[in-house]
Amino acid sequence: MTVLVTGATGFVGSAVARLLKTRGERVRVLARPGSDRRNLNGLDLEVAEGDLLDEGSLEAALQGVKTLFHVAADYRLWVPQPDQIYAVNVEGSRKLMVAALRGGVERIVYTSSVATLGILGGDQSADEATPVALTDMIGHYKRSKFLAEEAVRELIADSNLPAVIVNPSTPVGPNDVKPTPTGRMIVEAARGRMPAFVESGLNLVHVEDVAEGHLLALEKGRVGERYILGGENMALSGILAEVARICDRRPPKISLPHDLILPFAHLAEAWARLAKPVQDPFLTVDGVKMAKKHMYFSHQKAARELGYQPRPAVEGLKDAVAWFRQEGYLTG
Asked: Which residues contact residue 330 at a Cβ distance below 8 angstroms, ignoring those fewer than 6 apart?
């Protein structure tokens, strides 16, 4: 039986594809023509070229598939053209789910994000039941993922879509080729290029544990339910201190107020728009706004129902730094 994985050229999706291969599964991945496929190197799998917005390519990729992992998403905290992120994350997800229904797919794991969940702030950990609304979403990425998850839920309720939803927190570890916003932060900290920071809090989890959580959700998850695939809550100062310790550097000591740094985020975005070609700013307005609350979460539901057991977050940071060093991200 063939398993289809979308987003396998990316960070989490490639970890899912690798784990499936180690379990002896026949894996097909959906990849856009011309996409960066370094994360597929060495993997014995089938590549179906296509696009989430191309219904014909989705139907072709789903031929003979009974299990689908929809991991693909446009994960950017800043986009010069916001319509793109809604097209991929919302409409692309809806098109794929409808095609899966038509194709007779029997089991789906849809990768959402903790970005769609409520946040309690302080040192409190939110869970799957924490109240939240679209108006709570900061930025286009969070809004698009919220709307995409709602679209999947509607299909579960109205069309019996056989989907389980997983909500990864902040994955770290090897094969973050792009890298993700968190990966970029780790790279800069490892290179000693973060003299100051804006205090926040994240839930870090090893990317391979997130992949394991996907397979556990496939096996044990209840259709229509969502499961946080998280790890350890850590203050940003603690994360940067760990990266500094791993790299034998001094951690940054200067914590800047959010309101002080916000104007610089606006300038960084303006500069990114003017650059040719357009560049992703390291500092974003949405990122600064989100940092005002500690984004802490509990994975107890996944532990209880799926048997999910993530490792300590520092192991993910060690593996991330080792991989970035090996691949040359820390030079120059």
From this structure: 187, 190, 191, 321, 324
